[in-house]
Amino acid sequence: MEPGALGREYEDREVICRQGDRGDCMYVIQSGTVDVLHQDGGAEVLVGTMKAGEIVGEMALFDRQPRSATVRARGAARVLTLDKRAFLRRVHEDPSLAFRLLETMSQRIRALNTELASLKQAPAATEREPARLAGRRG
Amino acid sequence: MGMLLEDGSRVGVIGGGPAGSLFAYFLLTFAQRMDMPLSVDIYEPRDFSKPGPAGCNMCGGIVSESLVQALAVDGINLPGSIVQRGIDSYVLHSERESIRIDTPLREKRIAAIHRGGGPRDISERTWGGLDGYLLKLAQDLGANVVPTRVGEVGWDDGRPRVKLKDGERTYDLLVGATGVNSSGWDLWEKLGFEGKRPETTKAYITELNLGNRTINETFGNSMHVFFLDMPRLDCAAIIPKGDYVTVCLLGDDIDHDLVHTFFENPAVQRAFPVTWIAGEGACHCSPKINLREASKPFVDRVVLIGDCGATRLYKDGIGAAYRTAKAAARTAVFSGVTASDFEKHYLPAYELIARDNRFGRLIFRVVHRVKAFPPLRHGALKMAAREQARPGASRRMSIVLWDMFTGSAPYREIFFRTLDPRFWVRFGWSSIRAGGGRRGKQMEAAHGTGSAG
After folding, report:
1. One domain for residues B208 and B275
2. Are the beta carbons of A80 and B72 separated by less than 8 Å?
3. pLDDT tens sequence across B250-280
4. Which of B75, B106, B108 sits opposite A6 (nearest CB)?
5. N or C terminus: fewer CB in 10 A for chain A?
6. Which domain holds residue B90?
7. What is the DSSP letter of B314?
8. Under 8 Å CB-to-CB from B173, ≥6 apart: which residues?
9. Per-residue pLDDT tens for B283-292?
10. How far apart (Å, rounded) are the C-alpha atoms in residues B263 and B208?
11. pTM for the full predicted model
12. Nearest-CA distance from B35 to chain A in Å?
């Protein structure tokens, strides 16, 4: 780790925070990339990949629910931890700090909408496909 | 145009240090969110890429834990090309012992930086300075940097006017970010600022070229702070950077005699390599620091931010520059630029710093008493050492010392934390044991005090 690097260095596949844990901090990625993984039963689904400059783990700060996903380093990654209490005190003093989080969340909702639309289109297309083929045969 | 900034409004900023640059950065960021194009000029005669006084704003060069975090949320992640060393711990030295206090999570969350191009005897520039980096951020958002010293200001039909050699420029808002080491206040008085100027005292800073390897081996990634009974000395620190360490002494008019006494102190000698010969570096200065805020930091269309208004006592001056700059930018974009707008929306942030400094002054008075009485001085360090040696133990003294020396928490918060009776019971017990002679020392040895040197 270079002497001027801020935050903590995580090794490849090292867990930064775990789904189900209590969230008392969020993270800003300083370098490298991290995977956001949702675990459902035994299955692990890659929800997204975040890169340097992006904020991750912010949801648990606002909704006081357990972590909704696991965040894991993809390759070596350096991550700065932001304390919940210090952050919320700052937001109380300076509400504009929350704006960038709103921007981040807004972008994520847009991305989710796009994915949801494509998922809804996909089954409809597979349903239409056999009917079209049956029509041809008929 | 009225007293609100509108499309095409002109804003002048005198001073391109952290306060001026961060003001311009946040003003332009907020204005972009409002789809409001503004024209911003920053007057800064210094070239921050130059080594020595020509490019330096004279400062210890620490970006606090709380500021590193706030900047990261704002999208300003300080890069390794600026941060010479990430600090992950503090080592507290007294005449008798040294103890180490780690950051929560053992993360590097404090940034050691140079403000300008580095000390005057620098041979190779590996890192850029913070001031140049922040100024560039403002430029990238559209601010225009004018490399000129402003010598004259006045009014032009109710609007502030800046007089330059090649003409005059009138602004809808003029922002003062001139610090306390320039003749900035002469300008502000010409614009009608009345009341008290900031109260100042002299600090001392020197840069010692020890080389990267020696610094790694001797100081590591720890800031070294001295808990010594020296009259007039409130804070003394050695901040390791790349090839240099910065020695920073703060207190009441630090003079040459006090600097000499400090360097000759056994605890200071112990912190340096054995081969080091005490003395100041080629680059040293005695900058003024703001001890007490200016009484009124605004009039219609003019507002003062950073050190020329109010700053945090001794610690986290760059953090105070960030807070005043952002509060002034918020007020200008979202509320207006009259004195009553600043009174309603800017003054609370300004007064928060000023009020907090009252707690700070009280804390430093108590600390002087503690340092002057050896059992209390050693008791404080022993209590922190015991806390560090026991993982999971409550860290009452460690947190108080950490927040005091790093500037990570408001002085008010530190003060109220020390009101907990459990803090005083443990401190009292540690002091009795520290002052208890041989029996006390035997008990300490049995507990293992986790000293670091």
Report:
1. yes
2. yes
3. 988 899 999 999 999 999 999 999 888 888 8
4. B108
5. C
6. 85-111+204-286
7. S
8. B5, B9, B10, B11, B12, B160, B301, B302, B303, B332, B337
9. 889 888 899 9
10. 12
11. 0.91
12. 15
